[in-house]
Design goal:
By secondary structure, the protein is α+β, with helices and mostly antiparallel strands. The chain contains 20 helices and nine strands.
Length: 473
């Protein structure tokens, strides 16, 4: 029995009959104060007392213990009482308001609406810049401790691939459809996906909505469908905070890669290339029909645990800022005071940035780089997405470059004590121009992307709900 609902039901009925607490007390053998405590849920009623009260009010016991409050005011009073007792209200220091009879109904509605919004904001996945940086840093450390290898997700991917009968080679769209069907899902391609989404899964109608063609940025349709399926396979719940959202995003990307580049086949391919001292991301990419970035990241998943290599990975934007990074080969990544690397500029001498300066960008760019933390060999490929350049880099300590194609590159740069060979010239230019210019900065996507407000970060809830309603039929 819900004491608060019972109390409001009794009070509503008593007032509707024009009875005072004293009059009700005289017919129930309960004191007016005891009845008042019962009506305000400050006292748990006994069944015998409820039977007497029900009889005095001309009700049945079932009516008194009904699950729903009897009218709008009672419903709002019950809801306000519960909302004011929540941890969210307590942590926010919101003073409690007793919903007395003199409190106008419009005011009661307003109080409940304000508390509902407070609860919604608390449950929404939002992050301040500081929280976003901390969450990203914690996740990077977490995955580094596991050497970027998650065996439980590898196992789940292999189970789903077995259902589709995947025997090898590039995963086909038909096999992806079979995998979705095994989960009770169907894949539909639409042209009106909400602008803030890459995919939408309708849990009620068991549908995955995808765009009609690959969207810019290398997110192929197979990968998108697999990422959507991953939420179901990995039994994800709605993110409780931004860190949870990031962890889920990492896991669905990992699952997708483990399906597109299955562990056994991928390791066999890499081990064979290593024996021939001919490891190359571009070959790995082409063998499984994936993007360069996906192949590079997958190589780091498998390299340490399964082929004995420690590596680093970088995605860098055209302005030289880190978008995504991983390392377990002790490369000293640029970081701010909190340890966050996202948005930090990499040294100009690094291959990830130097590759932008070459004229021919169709082939991988190889470079040996001396840094304060040692000498590294890197392979970089550049690309363009959303009207901005980017580079994808994998690298190893120089001693391990013997396993890779391009190890004999004549290009070598020194980033150990300066920011490249033009450091002196740049310092002179700084002295010449500091304080004599006022540029208007372009806001970068990676600055804003961690911060959107909503149930799922970056997703416009209203647009999403309208889309689902339109396609539900």
């Amino acid at each position: 029995m819900d004491a608060l609902t019972i109390g409001r039901t009794v009070r509503h009925r008593r007032r509707a009959l024009g009875m005072t607490l004293q009059q009700l007390a005289e017919t129930t053998a309960l004191s007016p104060s005891a009845l008042s405590m019962l009506e305000n849920a400050r006292r748990e009623p006994r069944l015998s007392q409820l039977e007497a009260i029900a009889q005095a009010l001309g009700m049945t016991l079932a009516d008194v213990v009904a699950a729903e409050p009897p009218d709008e005011r009672s419903r709002l009073e019950v809801e306000l009482s519960r909302l004011q007792e929540s941890a969210v209200a307590r942590e926010a220091g919101v003073p409690a308001v007793v919903p007395r009879r003199a409190l106008p109904l419009p005011a009661l509605r307003t109080l409940v609406a304000l508390h509902r919004e407070l609860q919604r904001r608390a449950l929404a996945s939002i992050a301040t810049p500081e929280e976003a940086r901390r969450a990203n840093t914690d996740l990077r450390r977490w995955i580094r401790e596991r050497e970027n290898f998650l065996p439980e997700i590898e196992t789940e991917a292999e189970k789903l691939l077995a259902v589709a009968g995947h025997a090898g080679g590039a995963l086909t769209h038909h096999e992806v459809d079979v995998m979705a069907a095994s989960l009770g899902l169907s894949i539909l391609h639409v042209t009106d996906l909400p602008h803030s989404t890459r995919t939408v899964t309708d849990l009620e109608n068991k549908r995955i909505y995808l765009p009609p063609a690959s969207i810019p940025g290398g997110h192929g349709l197979r990968a998108l469908a697999l990422q959507a399926m991953a939420h179901r396979v990995l039994q994800h719940r709605r993110p409780v905070d931004y860190a949870d959202f990031l962890r889920q995003r990492l896991e669905i990307n990992y699952f997708s890669s483990a399906c597109l580049m299955p562990r056994a086949a991928a390791v066999a391919f890499l081990e064979d290339a290593k024996k021939r001292r001919d490891l190359a991301v571009e070959d790995f990419r082409d063998a499984f029909g994936v993007t360069h970035e996906a192949a590079a990241m997958r190589m780091t998943n498998l390299a340490t645990r399964l082929i004995g290599l420690r590596m680093h990975f970088l995605r860098v934007s055209g302005d030289g800022a880190v978008v995504k990074a991983y390392e377990n080969d002790d490369l000293a990544l640029p970081a701010d005071a909190s340890g966050s690397v996202e948005g930090q500029p990499v040294p100009r001498a690094w291959a990830a940035r130097a590759a932008f300066e070459r004229t021919n960008r169709t082939t991988e760019f190889h470079q040996i780089t001396d840094t304060a933390s040692g000498t590294f060999w890197c392979s970089t490929q550049t690309g363009r997405a959303d009207a901005d350049d980017f580079s994808i880099t994998v690298g190893v300590r120089f001693a391990d470059s013997k396993w890779f194609r391009g190890r004999d590159t004549p290009r070598r740069a020194d980033a150990s004590a300066s920011d490249g060979p033009r450091a002196a010239e740049d310092a002179a230019l700084a002295r010449r121009w500091t304080g004599k210019a006022w540029p208007s900065a372009r806001m970068h996507a990676h600055v804003l992307s961690p911060l959107p407000f909503g149930t799922f970060p970056g997703v416009d809830d209203v647009e999403l709900h309208r889309f689902l309603e339109e396609h539900a039929g």
